[in-house]
Design brief:
heterodimer, A: 339 residues, alpha/beta, Rossmann fold, 11 helices, globular, B: 325 residues, 7-stranded mixed sheet, 5-stranded mixed sheet, 12 helices, 38% helix
Chain lengths: 339, 325
């Protein structure tokens, strides 16, 4: 049995290991910025009435999806949450496909069937975001079961929030993955609130990583705003899974700096000071500061990415706005397989 | 032709399919070395080992969701609930995930998964081991619902269920598990959506479901002595429902009774009646009748249990009432 270790949260990005090479650093930066810029467009589009349903942004939490998905191949499967834009983009959905989906267009990744909470792109291993809290853990365990049964080295990844860890799916999914040594990474994005319910009022023991010991699997806590900390921890979790050593529970402590859902009030359950304090720990600005200060990358390199991504997000907006609506005649297609 | 029990025929179908396709695996409580509470997997563990015959913790919600994820990623799970009542903990996964993934992915993610379990009121099993539940699943878009009544059908329909890329409920009435019947030696599959006429007749049509098929045939044997010729239809699959076979029969007989051990309100009989009314109103010589189990949780005591299930006597009476209309 692996011993369970819980790393102390670090104030210094990258402290948990040596820095990855420059191409990796730039790729991590780019993914975070793609998520941020795309969602900023989405937030504006929401105000303009271009998004017809819910829009839960991931702003402030980008380091988690970025650091985990950097280790995944296109044939690895991720299962996500109602706050899944970042996971989708980090796994390879394009800003165009994401934005068009929220706009309800046929060019969206779910062809207009899903919206923000039902993003599907099996071509890149996004096996669905979900409007229900909890199932991602079970379905990722199932992907792990498939991959083991079929004798591949693919892995399943479940993203879920702190709100999901008191749901039965957490217990049942992690327990089964552990007893059967399934290649799964359980990524808890602990952003401290289930909508507006503080985590501390939902459980007596707020140390999610410590729960790993209960199920006999490693539970690792990292600073979820530090993309390098996430990247290092995920590297080991993915290595373990691919090597047949079983699942890992990864708790990434992070914070959502916008309201639960666009258009919702964001007051009464947390203080302005708390939000401002977390803004100073923004995953993108802290990463920039760190890699520039150490001289690993130069400002120009980041600026080139900024400019490229800005254009990408603008292009995505135009693409989504100009895309056709789905044909109403297809509203009941694909309830069953064609077979 | 050789004779087999319903359970052994279904297990032969499962064995053949597992030999044919290594991506098939079975999960359930005691379906490994134990061979399943109802012998659904006897002998298979020795052939295919623990990964393909996976004994589970008592986590019905968990393994329903797990197998849903497995079906999305290349495997073909068969989930053996033992008693279908045990599946109810997994309803959120079934309804919100399993049934909807093909649609939400716009046909890009298949859902080849079979949920099997015993149903029905038998032998003082009482209310946590007696449910039928199938109208819940026929109501929802995305599920196939199979209720075989003969050993031959059990095998042929289970093989079709396993090869289907849709989620299929394969529901085995406990009163039928040890019943024997002819099963072909050669391989065969039975397609979904094809009812079987168990008895031909021209005076009235009875659609009977699951264990009610045999009860109805007993009732019809009694009436045949009086020269009453009833046509008995076994739908075999409730979703899809072969309404055409029912309509053809009603066109001939002008009278329809639906016999179902499950409850009447919002049930299969209500659906069949509505469809026949809409599509063949002019063929009807009498109001469509239903005979159902009593709308109550299932009692334990044999005297109470017998009171809630349609028996041969009640079926005879219901047919007589229908003919008197």
């Amino acid at each position: 049995m692996e011993s369970t270790t819980t790393h102390a949260l670090s104030d210094n990005p990258g402290e948990l290991g040596t820095l990855p090479d420059k191409q990796v650093l730039l790729a991590l930066y780019r993914t975070m910025v793609v998520i941020r810029r795309t969602e900023e467009q989405l937030a504006k589009a929401y105000l303009s009435g271009l998004i017809h349903g819910a829009c839960h942004t991931y702003i402030g939490e980008e380091a988690v999806a970025t650091g985990v998905c950097a280790h995944l191949r296109i044939d690895d499967a991720i299962f996500s949450t109602h706050r899944g834009h970042g996971h989708a983009l980090a796994k390879g959905v394009t800003p165009r496909e994401l934005m068009a989906e929220l706009f309800g267009r046929v060019t969206g990744c779910s062809h207009g069937r899903g919206g923000s909470m039902h993003l599907f792109a099996p071509e890149v291993g996004l096996m669905g975001t979900s409007g229900i809290v909890g199932p991602s853990m079970l379905m990722a365990a199932g992907a792990g079961y498939s991959f083991k049964l079929l004798k591949t080295d693919r892995v399943g990844v479940a993203f879920f929030g702190d709100g999901a860890v008191n749901n039965g799916a957490f217990h049942e999914g992690i327990n089964m993955a552990s007893i059967w040594d399934l290649p799964v990474i359980f990524v808890c994005e602990n952003n401290m609130y289930a909508t507006e319910v503080p985590f501390a009022s939902a459980t007596r023991n707020t140390d999610v990583a410590a729960r790993g010991a209960i199920y006999g699997l490693p539970g690792i806590a990292v600073d979820g705003n530090d993309v390098l900390a996430v990247w290092h921890a995920a590297a080991e979790a993915v290595r373990r899974a691919r090597a047949g050593e079983g699942p890992t529970l990864l708790e990434c402590r992070t914070y959502r700096t916008r309201s639960h859902s666009e258009g919702m009030r964001d007051a009464g359950y947390r203080t302005r000071e708390e939000v401002d304090e977390w803004r100073t720990r923004d995953p993108i600005t802290t990463f920039r500061r760190h890699v520039l200060a150490d001289g690993h990358v130069i400002t120009d390199e980041l600026a080139r990415i900024d400019a490229e991504v800005e254009e990408l997000a603008t292009d995505a907006l135009a693409f989504a706005q100009n895309s056709p609506w789905p044909d109403p005649a297809t509203a009941a297609d694909h309830i069953f397989s064609a077979k | 032709m050789r004779e087999m029990t319903f359970t052994n025929a279904a297990r032969e179908g499962l064995t053949e399919e597992m030999a044919r396709d290594p991506s098939i695996f079975v999960v359930g409580e005691g379906i490994g070395a134990r061979g399943g509470n109802f012998n659904t997997t006897t002998g298979l563990y020795e052939l295919y080992g623990p990964e393909r015959l996976r004994d589970t913790p008592i986590s019905e919600r968990g393994f329903t969701g797990l197998c849903t994820g497995a079906a999305m990623t290349g495997a073909r799970p068969v989930v053996d609930f033992m008693f279908l009542d045990f599946l109810l903990d997994g309803m959120g996964e079934l309804i919100n995930q399993t049934a909807k993934i093909q649609y939400m992915s716009d046909g890009r993610v298949p859902m080849p998964i079979v949920f099997r379990g015993s149903i029905g009121i038998v032998g003082a099993s009482a209310t946590h081991h007696s449910g039928n539940y199938y109208p819940i699943f026929t109501h929802l878009p995305g599920f196939r619902v199979v209720v075989p009544t003969t050993p031959r059908d059990a095998k042929g329909l289970l093989k079709t269920a396993i090869r289907s890329d849709d989620p299929v409920f394969f529901l085995e009435h406990k009163a039928l598990l040890n019943s024997k019947g002819p099963v072909p030696e050669e391989e065969y599959l039975i397609p979904f959506g094809q009812a079987e006429i168990r008895l031909a007749g021209s005076d009235a049509t009875v659609v009977a479901i699951a264990a009610m098929v045999n009860r109805t045939l007993e009732a019809c044997a009694e009436l045949a002595g009086e020269g009453i010729a009833v046509e008995v239809i076994d739908p075999r699959t409730l979703a899809p429902l072969d309404i055409d076979t029912i309509l053809e029969s009603v066109h001939k007989t002008g009278r329809l009774l639906i016999v179902d051990e499950d409850f009447a309100p919002s049930g299969i009989g209500a659906e069949i009646a509505a469809q026949v009314m809409a599509l063949a109103f002019n063929d009807l010589d009498a109001p469509i009748a239903r005979l159902n189990g009593v709308h109550t949780p299932t009692p334990y005591s044999p005297s109470l249990e017998a009171a809630v299930i349609p028996n041969t006597k009640r079926i005879v009476e219901a047919i007589r009432d229908l003919l008197a209309e």
